[in-house]
Amino acid sequence: MIRLAHIVRHPIKSIGFEDMAGASLTKGRALPFDREWAVAHDAAKFQVLTEWQPKMNFLRGVAGHQLMAIRAKLDESSRRVTLMHPVAGEITVAPDTDGAALLDWLRPLWPADRPAAARVERVPGQAMTDWPDPFLSVLGLATNDELGRRMGKDLSRHRWRGNLWLDGLAPWQEFDLIGRQIQIGAAVLEIRQRITRCKATTVNPETGVSDADTLGALNMFYGHQDFGTYAVVVESGAIAVGDEVRIK
């Protein structure tokens, strides 16, 4: 049996990951509060964020490795996010109103030779994911395990910044689902495409240090740089960790 093993969201793009017990998915929308906010830097190619913008306009783990070690916990009712880092400690902010405090907290974690964090941005209804499409990422635990075995490393699943982790698939079987639909709980998703990865995945989310050549391993062992898939919600419904996953 295939089951939903983990649900993960990232309330602020590239700044903290949070495991969840359940979520309510909506047709044509991303995972609720996933990449709801993003931190633009001084070199961003827009003045006011009114629509989706490419990832190079924002702080990202590929440029600031210490960002990868941030954990998050969102209180949806108050829209306040608690961020925790092994060196920077803990802060709780409302990103809509406490932008200055968040930037101050992030400053020591962001390289001084990079464009500085400038402002917290949000577009209602638009997740600041790497694509403008309302994607959720769907990944297989067995794929992560197999890659780790080949590399001789215990790879944290949080390296991949995934949303929905499935247990019970064979390694790389998620690629075979492209073009098909899966039902999780009451929701139905359509698997659309592979995810091509960047160097942020080389960073250990426990330490914020690059310690595993994930991209080199993917290319050496499999001849590509892809890990996980993107999906869209085609039927709304609630999902929960432990739900059976049915391939339609």
Walk me through the structure.
The strands form 5 sheets. The protein has an 8-stranded mixed beta sheet. 13% of the residues lie in helices and 33% in strands. The longest helix has 11 residues, at 141-151. The chain is mainly beta and 248 residues long. The chain has 2 domains: 3-29 and 131-247, PK beta-barrel domain-like (M1 Pyruvate Kinase, Domain 3), CATH 2.40.33.20; 38-121, no CATH class. Strand 11 (181-184) and strand 12 (187-196) form a beta hairpin.
Strand and helix layout:
Elements (H helix, E strand, L loop, with lengths): L2 E7 L8 E3 L1 E4 L12 E4 L29 E5 L4 E6 L3 E5 L5 H8 L10 E5 L14 E5 H11 L12 E4 L5 H4 L4 E4 L2 E10 L6 E2 L4 E2 L3 H9 L3 E10 L1 E4 L4 E3 L1
Parallel strand pairs: 9-10
Antiparallel strand pairs: 1-2, 1-10, 3-16, 4-8, 5-6, 6-7, 9-15, 11-12, 11-17, 12-15, 13-14
Mean residue pLDDT: 97
From the spread of the alpha carbons, the general shape counts as: globular
What sequence of helices (H) and strands (E) makes up the elements?
Answer: EEEEEEEHEEHEHEEEEHEEE
Largest sheet: 8 strands, mixed
List low-confidence stretches. none
Number of strands: 17
State the CATH superfamily name of the largest domain.
PK beta-barrel domain-like
Distance between the termini: 14 Å
Please identify the top-level CATH class of the largest domain. Mainly Beta
The total tally of domains equals 2
Tell me the strand percentage band: 25-35%
* Portion of residues within helices: 10-25%
Radius of gyration: 17 Å
Structural class: mainly beta
Total of helices: 4
CATH topology category name of the largest domain: M1 Pyruvate Kinase, Domain 3
Q: Name the CATH architecture of the largest domain.
A: Beta Barrel
Write out the strand line-up for the largest beta sheet, numbering strands in chain order: 2-1-10-9-15-12-11-17
